[in-house]
């Protein structure tokens, strides 16, 4: 079964699918073990992992290579963040075909101008492309997907750009008309009120996807209760957790002038071997090394 089919089945079965961000296969494997339904191949996380702003600075190839590596190392469907689609509708066809071949279950494409700026940045450049242009890009994504079940998620940044709820709803309807399977509506308001208003006014023709980074108090139970939200993406909790842990451990080692105390707080080298599937390699050695 393709990753797209599996993602569709999870949404149908669970009502709400939850995806955890990852910036490499190891973080994706940890998310898989924690019980998430899907992996969010986040542009923000990968940009941060490279130490650069999430502003269309990484190439498609950099993101695609990491996304492919993730998809190869987890059984979960991967939801790929393709930003603005790296250009116009023709670029989008090339991009979606390549991500489809890499085995992702979904692509998320946003209606901002290339080069984009990251959504949650105070004072960020948030310029939308024309609605018709983005409809063409959504239709191009649908036409180019190598698997008809690959989920095409159209993301409107209308609320992020300050264009208001009416504009967000108009764009969402237009993107569904162009073929979108889900609508991601992003918001940087500190409460869920804005996205809940969107959900209340949404016709439910396609499920909504949310990234609740800015309004973390919105629970999965509350999302499910709307009956309209089909996917929640935890957009940056892998990289933030990694930074928290590294800061604490690095500081301790500098404080102590050695690793003895820090060693007790972190997983063992054997735990990492296990995450690398070393035991399976050792078993294969017994069979095949002669
Ligand atoms: C990402 O994780 O790359 C996203 C979500 O697109 S956000 O950073 O909130 O824009
Ligand atoms: Mg992104």
UniProtKB/TrEMBL annotation:
By sequence similarity, the record places it as follows: Belongs to the isocitrate lyase/PEP mutase superfamily. PEP mutase family.
- Can you provide one Gene Ontology molecular function annotated for this UniProt record? phosphonopyruvate hydrolase activity
Give the signal peptide as a residue range, or say none if absent: none
Residue spans making up a coiled coil are none
Keywords annotated in UniProt: Hydrolase, Pyruvate
Q: Give the enzyme class.
A: hydrolase
Q: Does the keyword Ion transport apply?
A: no
UniProt protein name: Phosphonopyruvate hydrolase
Q: What is its EC number?
A: 3.11.1.3
- Membrane among keywords: no
